[in-house]
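Feature request, filed as a ticket because there's no other form

It would be nice if the structure record came with a short human-readable summary line next to the tokens. Right now we just get the raw output. Example of a typical job, pasted below so the devs can see what we mean:
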Amino acid sequence: MKISPSEITTLGQLRSSGYLPKSIKKEMRDNLISKIKNKEKLFEGIMGYDDTVLPDVERAMLSGHNILLLGLRGQAKTRIARMMIHLLDEYIPIISGSEINDDPIQPISKYGIDMVMTHGDDTPITWIHRSERYVEKLATPDVSISDLIGDVDPIKAANLKLPYSDERVIHFGLIPRSHRCIFVINELPDLQARIQVSLFNILQEGDLQIRGFKLRLPLDVSFVFTANPEDYTNRGSIITPLKDRIESQILTHYPRSIETSMSITANEAKISKELYAKINVPFLHRKLIELINFNARESEFVDIKSGVSARLSISALENLYSTAERRMLINGEESTTTRITDFWGVIPAITGKVELVYEGEQEGPYNVALHLIFKGIKSLFLEQFPNPNQKIKRELKDEYGVIKAYFSGGNNLELLNDDANKTFEKKLENVAGLRKIAENYMKHDDDITPLMDLILFGLAECEVLGKNILENSLEFGDPLSDMLNDLDN
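Raw output as currently delivered:
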């Protein structure tokens, strides 16, 4: 029976409507069952978890469990928790003025019980939206029991002229105020052990105690905890008895395919429609961003246990657009296509997102970022074009022979970071044989200029061409002459 909140303002009206109290976990379970039956997508925008994490979350909610989402940073743990509010009823009734969302039919606080005893069916009620039934707390070492559970409020005692033994002097913490709500604690291991102990009774018995008061509040809360396994050893740990009381522990993970990662990045990156229309980011460059992220998660310079967030790819794509936009503005152009030299503008998005091990610190963040970019370029090049270092059968012609001859003949190519579109394209066209090989391996949806660009960088990474990185430009040449120049210097 659907109840209209605007028509019901007293307890008597609520009773007459046929309203029945329901626990939050039963409420979430019923709504989840309805959504599953109707083939509705519950976690819109969460990608890569359809066959792993999300089924586990749904099973946990069907079981009425409190949940621990365990995984490295940037794995959408908090986002999953926030989307659970869509499983709550749109509105629920509470006793007007109740600090802890007392159900009018089943009040648990002294205030709520006294209101019903005093006013009976005339007890005023209000309705709260599901958006008000989500509470989130970031666990930090300075969080106290008073913050979470509550404490005696001396100011309230003085104003009401009540002794400290009166329950009305209690100031409720976040958890009692989350009665009939979803309560999320992020980074659970950062809570001090003694604070974690205070959660035992709430999880096991569904009640709590404040100071020396005899009262027990049978709270109705759906708990969701998030934690990073790295925290178990570095900053803190989840104490074993608490872990034992959290019924479902669900492991999250990074996207397992480049395609999924690209979809997440495209969905999350904040790119204006105007910029999106003016700047073309080819598929190759979008894929290169994800290769950089995947390579970082396996790099010997990066602390793998710390993880590399999906935010690296998102920030990198935003920076790539901004780098191309800045170049476009400098040259007074109306549109442009990104190029590999624009990835120098992506470096700040990489250096701030990776934790380096000792070897990485020795290399330096900037050099590690360059290493990840160049490794991605090489992988991308070898996926699209033949490996120039493989032995060529005598009857076959070296596909890169014309390009090699061009540079071995004393020609160099300098690409400035801020070259205008026409200047950049003309420089590539001047390299003998470059366009032809790009055309030979061009797919129907490829742009020719990014392919020519990739060939040059790919040949440099395969050590077929020499590469010299300057402050605002990059120079390609014959590798042998580059070696001789280095010897002379």
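Something like this underneath would help us a lot:
Residues 482 and 488 are 10 Å apart (CA to CA).
Residues 5-141+179-188+216-251 form a domain with the Rossmann fold fold (CATH 3.40.50).
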